[in-house]
Design goal:
Blueprint lengths: L1 E7 L3 E11 L9 E14 L10 E15 L10 E9 L2 E10 L8 E14 L4 E13 L2 E5 L8 E5 L2 E13 L7
Antiparallel strand pairs: 1-2, 2-3, 3-4, 4-7, 5-6, 7-8, 8-11, 9-10
Length: about 180
């Protein structure tokens, strides 16, 4: 993992991060993936510097974008497996093997790209503070089991199928209602 942090005038901060992850659970050619991210913050108002705008004593705007990955498949699942089974061999039981899971050498990382924008604020000399965030997470190449027709001899196969999107707003507030009471 590599990370670079830059700060300018103690008001602007830029962070860049990149990592490469590997998973032995995936087949050759799909084991490794890169996951970059970038974040920017700007302290618009800072009560330490004595800046104020009406009741607002501090304000920081921030935004970030980055990707993460998931390889939630069983070890060796890309190679398929054999299951032990009992057979009738005349009047005697015999043990053998039958195909268990279907191999899929094309399985790759499930990836989520997240975008977040927000603001941290302080009001009334810090007596009321909080943060407001908007986020959106897009997940692609979802790792899911897909049902197969019984005629194939298999029940399902794990594949990269589908995508999801999660979007939301979060608000957190904190207040100092009584100060100086012991």
């Amino acid at each position: 993992m590599a990370r670079l942090n830059d700060t300018l005038l103690d008001k602007y901060r830029l962070t860049r991060t990149s990592r490469v992850d590997g998973s032995s659970r995936l087949a050759e050619g799909n084991k490794f993936a890169s996951f970059p991210s970038v974040a920017l913050g700007w302290r618009v108002l800072d009560d330490v510097a004595g800046q104020r705008f009406g009741p607002v004593s501090s304000l920081k705007l921030r935004g970030s974008y980055g990707t993460t990955g998931n390889t939630s498949v069983n070890p060796y699942q890309t190679q398929g497996s054999l299951d032990r089974t009992a057979y009738a061999y005349g009047s005697t039981a015999a043990f053998g093997y039958q195909p268990g899971t279907l191999s899929n050498p094309d399985l790759r990382w499930e990836k989520t790209a997240s975008l977040d924008g927000g603001a941290d604020f302080g009001l009334l000399d810090g007596r009321l503070s909080g943060s407001l965030d908007f986020y959106r997470a897009n997940t692609t190449d979802l790792l899911l089991d897909r049902a197969l027709p019984p005629s194939t001899g298999y029940q399902s196969i794990t594949q990269n199928v589908g995508a999801t999107r999660n979007t939301g707003v979060e608000l957190a507030l904190s207040a100092i209602t009584l100060d100086g009471w012991h």
